[in-house]
Amino acid sequence: MKTIFRAVCAFVLTVAGLTVSAQQQGVTADNILIGAFGPITGPAAYIGLAGRDGMNLAIKEINAAGGINGRKLSAAFEDDAHSPTRGLAAAKKLIEQDKVFMLMSVGGSNATAGTIDYVRDSKLIMYVSIASVPQVTWPFAKNMFRGGTTESARYGELYAEFLSTHFKTKKIGIMSGREEYPRNEGDATVTKLKDWFGIAPVARVEFNIGDKDFTPQLVQVQKVSPDVIAFLGNPAEAAIAMRQAKELGMKQPFFVGSNMVDPALVLAARTSAEGVTGFSLIPLLPGSKNPEMVKWQESWKKEYPSAPAGRPNNFDVMAYADMYVVADAMKRAGKDLTTDSMITSLEATKDFSVGAIATKRTFSTKHHIGNLSLVPMIVQNGAWEPVSWSSSRQSDILSRY
Amino acid sequence: MTITLAFQLAIAGVSVGSIYALVALAIVIPFKSSGVLNFAQGEVVTFGAYAALVLTQLALPYPVVVLGVVVLGGVGGIVAERLLIRPIVQAPEFTLVMATFAIGLLIKGLISLKFGDSAASLDSPFDPEPLIALGLRFNLTSLWILACTTFVTLSVIGFFKYTKMGKAMRAVSVNAEASRLMGIRVSSVYRWAWGISTAIGALSGLLVAPLIGINPEIGHLILRGLLAAVIGGFTSIAGAVFGGIAVGLIETFSGVLIGSTFKNLVPFLLLMLLLFFRPHGLFGTAEAKRV
């Protein structure tokens, strides 16, 4: 009798397990497989390496705390090399071969842009932690979410307001890279400068990622004598441009894109970074003496003891926090985890916080932009410090939905 | 464009051009002596930058760092030639080129593994404030690079012209088999050609690091180095240096005059035009063949 009872129980449990896995790819009786991608090679590796490591640290902590409704989390990671085609290949492999439950983009806009049409059609969830490429959340798609980063249109609003009101000027020069994120944020800034303040930049010049000489662009900007220069690109390029600007005798302050509001810029540009302003996507930067950040950094360094200088950086924090946002939604979705239940659960996320190290995330059924808050910062004595400035304008972007 | 601006742009062009010139030199030397186009040279530059970073972190004085980087670069080249190139030296040229590609990828991979892909920086031994003279601004580090490029170029020209090994390299470049029959140790020539070129490559990395920062992607400079070498004629030391400076100047001036969008394209377009009229570059000569 006992044997028959055990056999029946085993049969029921097996069928139950098979049922779950048959219903929802990437979810088994004891595991949830997430697919993640980001650049871990190439000039944008500072984003993807951090995104991967921050996300994995959160997964380890979540599993150590018992996992999610009896299941452990695991992640399959692909290098997108900051390329749209490599990003698409990564997304396809993760969805079609690895059969993941959902995707996490912990890379830049270039690669993420390449995946959007495919992932939208796949109907699986993609949660974007770092890339600002607008198509993730606009036009609205039920299966696309944006976490720690905000949309480039929002960057445009904040950059335009800060540049014109903090620097009290109408003479703004913009230097932007030709890749996805700097071009989008540059365009959004130009649009909002015009719409909100009636200002046209006195110069808009572009450069290529990996350029080693910015003299031609700086000379073009210098000709029109702007009061401030907004530089949108990567820290390596910004460091060279700032040094060369000094050599050309340019005194204008630099404002940089939010991906550079990070210790990496100060490390690369050293004294040239002094006085540079920009918006941070996280309220506390790594290196802050805030007890929560100190504690988090200790955990991070314990996990990655031989990490190079400049790590952990902002992207570690963003991906770490976003993994907790996802895990929290999974928990609330319950044992019967499906794409639909996960979307419903994510949309019910309101002011989710992992603590002082990251901004709160809120989604709704109308929009999937989790974070609209950015913190203005300035480099003083070799460290990023908050600037006392706050936006006085209502964001336009949510009114689109 | 004012005269002052033109001179300031020329300074910037020569500054970036001298970096290209050093990379071009490091490409031309082994090609001149062994006919092998070393595609790993970009990664040798990267290696030099990271070696300088490590030695600087040991608080060694700058001259010791320079010496250390040059020696490490040279020894690395000799070891790579002995272990990875010499065993396949009789293979077709394409195989050798692919082998140098592999060496480059190996160097880059090891660097990424050890240091990660985040950017780092190296302080210049000189004051970051520019020197102002005649209304122009001179970056001291750029002047130092220019001085080093001039010194290396003259040394290499002197080496090829006046030393026994230099003459042997020239002989081997013309006809390796005949040189062997004349008593020249061809393997030794190859070894030294690699050692010297990688030492120069590593020195380039040390010199450019304070200006362009350090990351595993520095090796992309090889594209500009190759362009400079082709303009110069690929077998001419002076041509490589001239080509490097020319590329720097063309990039800088075209960026201002035509627009930054075309800055990187113009040197390649001009190269195509040049090769149409001078297929062997400005300083190169057609190889005479008995028919």
Structure commentary:
The complex is a heterodimer of chains A (401) and B (291). Chain A has a 7-stranded mixed β-sheet with strand order 7-6-8-9-10-11-12, with helices on both faces. Chain A has a 5-stranded parallel β-sheet with strand order 2-1-3-4-5, with helices on both faces. Residues 15-21 of chain A have low confidence and may be disordered. Chain A is built from 12 helices and 12 strands. Chain A has 2 domains: 2-150 and 289-370, Rossmann fold (3-Layer(aba) Sandwich), CATH 3.40.50; 153-280 and 376-400, 3-Layer(aba) Sandwich (Rossmann fold), CATH 3.40.50. Chain A has 401 residues and is an alpha/beta fold. Chain B has a domain at 27-219. Chain B has a two-stranded antiparallel sheet with strand order 1-2. In chain B, α2 (41-57) packs antiparallel against α3 and α6 crosses α8. Chain A binds chain B through residues 40-43, 45-46, 49, 205-208, 210-213, 215-217, 219-220, 235-236, 239-240, 243-244, 246-249, 264, 267-272, 307-311, 313, and chain B through 5, 8-9, 12-13, 16, 19, 112, 115-121, 123, 128-130, 137, 139, 211-213, 215-217, 220-221, 248, 251-256, 260-261, 263-264.
Brief rundown of the structure:
Chain A has 401 residues and is α/β, with parallel strands linked by helices. Helix content of chain A is 43%, strand content 15%. Chain A folds into two domains: 2-150 and 289-370, Rossmann fold; 153-280 and 376-400, Response regulator (Rossmann fold, 3-Layer(aba) Sandwich).
Features:
heterodimer; A: 401 residues; alpha/beta; Rossmann fold; seven-stranded mixed β-sheet; five-stranded parallel β-sheet; 12 helices; 12 strands; 43% helix; globular; B: 291 residues; mainly alpha; two-stranded antiparallel ribbon; 11 helices
Taking the sheet with the most strands of chain B, its summary is: 2 strands, antiparallel
CATH architecture descriptor text of the largest domain in chain A: 3-Layer(aba) Sandwich
Radius of gyration of chain B: 19 Å
Q: Could you tell me the number of beta strands of chain A?
A: 12
What is the helix fraction of residues of chain A, given as a range? 40-55%
**Spatial separation of the terminal alpha carbons of chain A:** 61 Å
Q: Which term fits the overall shape of chain B? A: globular
Chain pair with largest interface? A-B, 43 and 40 residues
Number of helices of chain B: 11
Q: Name the quaternary structure.
A: heterodimer
Strand content of chain B: under 5%
Mean pLDDT of chain A: 90
Gyration radius of chain A, to the nearest Å? 22 Å
Which descriptor suits the 3D outline of chain A? globular
Number of helices of chain A: 12
